[in-house]
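Support reply, case 0932

Customer input (verbatim):
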Amino acid sequence: MSIRSALFILAGLLFAATAGRAELTVSSDFENGSAVGDGIDQATGTIRIHPAGDPQRGWPCWWYFRVDGVELGRTLFVEIDRTTGLLPSETGAGNEGKPLNPVWSQPAQAVFSTDGGETWRRTETGKSNAGRMRYAAKVDAASVLFAWGPPFTPTDGAELIQQAVAEHPEFVQAFELAKTREGRAVPAAVVRAGKKPDAERYGIWVQARQHAWESGGSWVGVGLFRWLISDDPRAVALREQAVVYYVPVMDVDSVATGNGGKGQKPNDHNRDWSAKPHFPEVAAAQKFIRTLSDEGRFDFFVDLHNPGAGEPKPYFFTAPHEELSELGRRNLERFVTAARTEINGPLPLEPKQKTSGANYSSKWREISKNWVVFNTRPHVVAVTLETAWNTPNSTAAGYSTVGKQLGLAIERYLRESPRAASSKE
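Our regenerated output:
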């Protein structure tokens, strides 16, 4: 049991012991918390909230809060109301100037934790009525956390990396990608093993959470990272022939403050890959990637996201194929073929890809994977992986499995050099 889990349980027990038959209370004043209370029915154990995110800081669909004063074994009901704030322009999907469609804040099942966020269980399937979604969960603790999906915070990312460094100092190093506009650290790691010079290694960049509410993207990254530092022979082979850069959370400020991130003003992180980025962490990632490419040491980029509510399978977004070199198209097809083999369930890969070009967004050239295509060598593969969030397998474990499988796909792809004939392009 972690210190955080122990403190959470102790706080709940103390609350119950001192309060007698306590009334239910709701709080969200912690990292990544987001909830506006709309009322508590003490008799029925019904808690009504809506997301607290500022629409100017992205789609207000994320919610995460704590309930204290719970009688052990009581069934609680959580009702999520639609967001009331109007969305800014450049949010996509025809939402400009309108309230966000409630489907984004109302998953089929929510999650809850009675051990301080160490483990997350799913509620019963929600029931929708008049734009409000109602979830039920039987709680076996005095305090419980409820969330849209399994949270993953900047602190979680930093702790994951520090634990990896402590366990594997010989091939894992921590570094700070940047300080955010609000002064928070953006934790990152680099993984390399063996004695091969960096100049002879493949360069890989893995990042998650350019859209803060898409917590599943971070869990996919966790799965890849944990596999990469494991004793799986294929993981050992990859870290001995490559340098892997890993950023578990890009939009640290929005995740920390419980904002949605997507569509924020003036740009969200995945529309900020321009010549003059608004966000320091985007500028730092660009600098890393451009330097690696200029030195002939960059080969693969993946940005980890969650898609729309109705998407049942993970899939890749790519740059328009006509924007790729001949070698780039061949490499992309080789990688996707490897991914189809490896990402095979419980969340199997959708065979077809989607492209994000001029018809997708007016800022399509400033989407991260597209920027990579336009600013690195012709052989480089750059993709966005969208992992389904509204399915029975969209859990921390399910996401992590996709991440491990993504790592296996990258290892399979790099068995053949992606740089072959690149000088001819």
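We compared this against your earlier run and they match. Two observations from our side: Residues 13-19 have pLDDT under 50 and may be disordered. The first strand starts at residue 25 and ends at 27. Please reopen the case if you see a mismatch on your end.
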